[in-house]
Specification:
single chain; about 450 residues; alpha/beta; Rossmann fold; 2 domains; six-stranded parallel β-sheet; elongated; binds nicotinamide-adenine-dinucleotide; binds uridine-5'-diphosphate-glucuronic acid
Amino acid sequence: MSFNKKILCIGAGYVGGSSMAIFARKCPEYKITVADINQERIDAWNSDNLPIYEPGLYEIVKEVRGKNLFFTIDIAAGVKESDIIFVCVNTPTKTFGAGAGKAADLQYIEKVARLILKHADSDKIVVEKSTIPVKTAEAISEILHSSGDKKVKFQIVSNPEFLSEGSAINDMENPDRVLIGTEETPEGEKARDEIIAIYSHWVQKDKIITTSVWSSELSKLVANAFLAQRVSSINSISLLCEATGANALEVARAIGKDNRIGAKFLKPSPGFGGSCFKKDILNLVYIAQSYNLNEVADYWESVVLMNEYQKDCFVKRMVRIMFNNITGKRIALFGFAFKSGTGDTRESAAIDIAKKLIEEKADLVITDPKALANAKEDLAEYKGKVSFTADPYQASCGAHAIAIVTGWEEYKNLDYKKIYETMERPAFIFDGCNCLDSGALYDIGFNVVPLGRGELVRW
Ligand code: NAD
Ligand code: UGA
């Protein structure tokens, strides 16, 4: 079959794999190739066992794979044949040298730019979809134009991705907006129109926002920072509610009704997680510091500091309420994924909470419907001090306490009467996600400690 356009995506992770599956479904006349250096990942994308869990993704991949969606490790061939290259590699926080712990580690982006330069023998539009610091396009452009060969021309476009894990398919099929940043030159405008043409297959024109490259790059970091800031704000208030007897859910509802504030991202939690919030805020902090805007940097860093404090407070409250002693007590952690609907545990609050509980010498058991394999890796250094089971009934059997850290739907529907019968007394439930009916649990016999609200205990 001949295709109108050929798109290459470099990086077959959450963003690359899922966004290209949507592109392939929505644009049948485009050939989409997703390439990665990781053979195992590519093999998984080509199998029935995809490397990531995302509701609805498998069905879409099955529908388009082999028709206009292909997964390969042959990056060179992909670069040669493509018109448009999306860069979706990881941009983690730098762990070494200048900016360690804050700045984005751009080695993967740079490697990709050099690969493109090496193999490109025709003009390309290079699209940054990875989240990167403002002005990265400039660096990519410098590398791509460093050979002195004027025949092959590159246009750099910024098109950040706003999908959330667990709802990625819906987020991409019905985006609030698509952001496209280009140079304000005739070539930049032409490249912008090519990217608009892709999204116009399914996104209304008024939802496609065009800006300069730098505004687009910065907007992505700022969007994540604002979302995380809301979570840290409500979490700070949840601690105040616990101290004063107010109810954080009622406060969130009361303020969220104000249209100017809005109801979303006001759910108190044991701390936000996910691969991006922390890293993107720290990146913003680093950028602000590098422009000597230290007050700006401190302001945004406090969002991350509050998040660390929240995890700490969650564990301290558990220890305090369990008579200041959890040594040797079996504690069942319900949920390990950073949110429900995903198997991803990157930066999950559960990691730090588990570590703190282990440090308190609790006998920890972890259950999660999708994230156990990742949980085992995250806690590999604690082998022998923590156990894992997919079955929440088994996890809670003989436990002094259950701590709900990920609000999986299935935790709402368990038989808590049956669970209570198998637990040590007094039996505690620390509901970090406010997903259970506290009153009903109390009536069964539990001491219930919901996050951001007063506890229902028998003394
Ligand atoms: P990921 O770690 O799941 O995937 C990145 C992939 O890039 C890996 O498979 C890796 O092998 C591959 N890779 C690295 N270097 C490569 C190279 N030189 N050549 C080919 N492949 C290479 O990452 P992700 O979660 O998909 O995130 C990618 C980017 O998108 C990040 O910048 C992230 O901040 C951003 N983002 C992520 C999400 C999300 O929900 N995960 C949402 C929006 C934006
Ligand atoms: C987030 C953003 O929502 C996406 O727009 C963005 O594209 C993505 O980061 C990214 O750049 O990687 P994601 O991390 O997948 O998406 O998930 P969110 O739904 O934003 O949740 C992040 C964390 O905040 C989770 O741990 C969640 O439990 C927590 N959260 C969220 C709360 O504690 N309270 C809330 O009210 C909402």
